[in-house]
Specification:
There is one protein chain. The protein is α/β, with parallel strands linked by helices. It has three domains: about 150 residues, no CATH class; about 90 residues, no CATH class; about 100 residues, 2-Layer Sandwich (Nucleotidyltransferase, domain 5). Strand 6 and strand 7 form a beta hairpin. About 45% of the residues lie in helices and about 15% in strands. Helix 9 crosses helix 12 and helix 13 packs across helix 15. Strands 7-6-5-8-9 form a five-stranded mixed beta sheet. It has a two-stranded antiparallel sheet with strand order 1-2. The protein has a two-stranded antiparallel sheet with strand order 3-4.
């Protein structure tokens, strides 16, 4: 932990892909001071990580086997978190606001609920000891979390609560129109932003043009948008668009996880480098729904610092844990033929098989087809020459 606390450079973060499992998180103090409140709000909005359907492993205490009791989630629903990675429990409040110097020194009920996690299942009373009295470090951290959420006075929920019935109705009309625009663009896979979104532009992008079109064909929406045209509450900023997209993504994933339920599933994984040269890991699941139909759904994309098998497996575990899916329920895994993916001893396939021998590997059919097309092209002289000439055309300057 100390090596993170001593880092001075700003840690690059992706607010949409923060680790859900408390055992995989970086200390809150390792993030730049300008990012901490944003990260805290994100975790508070998501709530504590409580994978209730997880199969909690047993630990022997003498001759007695004990395990974490999921009923504790109900007793301490606002702060208790469980790490699948470490088989330990953590405190969300203390993770977010326990003073840095007390974490290093292990003060205030010890550091077990923030650092390595608490896993002494035979001593439930330690949870009450951790909470302590009204002036304990835990309760001070809880109060800071509540104060942080109250500071969002200019957020849409706060404004919603502060307005009278008339304004509430107007906000609902405008918000419904905005959400309809976002849903349409997401469903059709269209871009949101335009090259020039100024008021003088002939084409301000799909989102703003669609919103204007909707207002021009609905008098109720047009009246409301005209009333707020000169204010800062038009709900047309890129930040608003992104927040609604994130909400739509969360709702879609919630439905997918509900559809999977406790069923077995397979994973399809691939990694590639994006235009900013960052390695991105994409993961999809394949399962049979309650109607007996084979369903394939994309569930996440995550930036990885390396493409070695250990890093990729950790990223997959984080994505699955985020949605309360267990590696033990995997019955198939499909990747390309690269050594880091299908290696017999140290590939991603082998690492997952070590944890779950029933997760059988199948070479990705799409990559198989690609290899077939490449092989056929190389053995057809006309096609081969076409690609050779095309390559030369792009390789050498025209004035050579």
């Amino acid at each position: 932990m100390e090596r993170y606390l001593k880092r001075k450079e700003r840690v690059e973060i992706d607010i949409n892909n923060l680790p859900s499992d408390p055992g995989l998180r970086l200390p809150i103090w390792s993030y730049d001071v300008n990012d901490r409140d944003k990260i805290r709000r994100c975790y508070l909005l998501k709530g504590p990580h409580q994978p209730r359907s997880h199969h909690f492993p047993q630990t022997l205490y003498g001759n007695i086997a004990r395990r974490f009791n999921p009923k504790w989630f109900d007793e301490y629903s606002d702060w208790l978190e469980y790490s699948v990675q470490k088989d330990a429990i953590f405190c969300l409040y203390c993770y977010l606001f326990k003073p840095q110097e007390q974490i290093i020194k292990g003060q205030g009920g010890g550091d077990s609920f923030v650092g390595e996690g608490f896993k002494n299942w035979k001593k439930k009373e330690k949870l009450l000891c951790h909470i302590g009295d009204h002036n304990s470090i835990h309760n001070k951290a809880r109060q800071k979390c509540e104060d942080l959420m109250k500071k969002q006075e200019h957020s849409l929920p706060a404004l919603w609560l502060s307005k009278d019935d008339k304004n509430k109705k107007e906000y609902r009309i405008m918000l419904t129109a905005v959400i309809d625009c976002v849903r349409f663009l997401l469903r059709q896979g269209l871009s949101f932003r335009g090259h020039d979104e100024s008021s003088n532009s002939d084409n301000r992008g799909n989102y703003l043009e669609l919103f204007d079109f909707l207002a021009n064909h609905n008098e109720e929406i047009k009246t409301v948008t005209s009333a707020y045209a000169s204010s800062n509450l038009k709900l047309t900023s890129p930040k608003v668009q992104k927040e609604i997209c994130i909400a739509a993504s969360a709702e879609t994933l919630r439905y997918i996880m509900k559809d999977i339920g406790s069923s077995y599933f397979s994973i399809i994984v691939d990694e590639s480098r994006d235009v900013s040269t960052k390695e991105q890991l994409a993961i999809a699941v394949r399962y049979v729904d309650k109607l007996g139909q084979v369903i394939e759904r994309f569930i996440g994309i995550k930036h990885v610092t390396s493409t070695n098998a250990v890093t990729l497996k950790a990223a997959i575990e984080d994505i699955l844990a985020k949605h309360s899916l267990r590696i033990q329920m995997i019955r198939g895994q499909g990747y390309d033929g690269a050594s880091n993916m299908r290696g017999e001893f140290h590939g991603l396939k082998a690492l997952i098989l070590n944890d779950n021998p029933q997760a059988f590997y199948v070479h990705c059919f799409a990559h198989q087809l690609q290899l077939c097309l490449v092989a056929v092209a190389k053995n057809h002289w006309q096609v081969k020459h076409l690609f050779e000439f095309t390559s030369l055309e792009f390789t050498f300057p025209r004035d050579c």
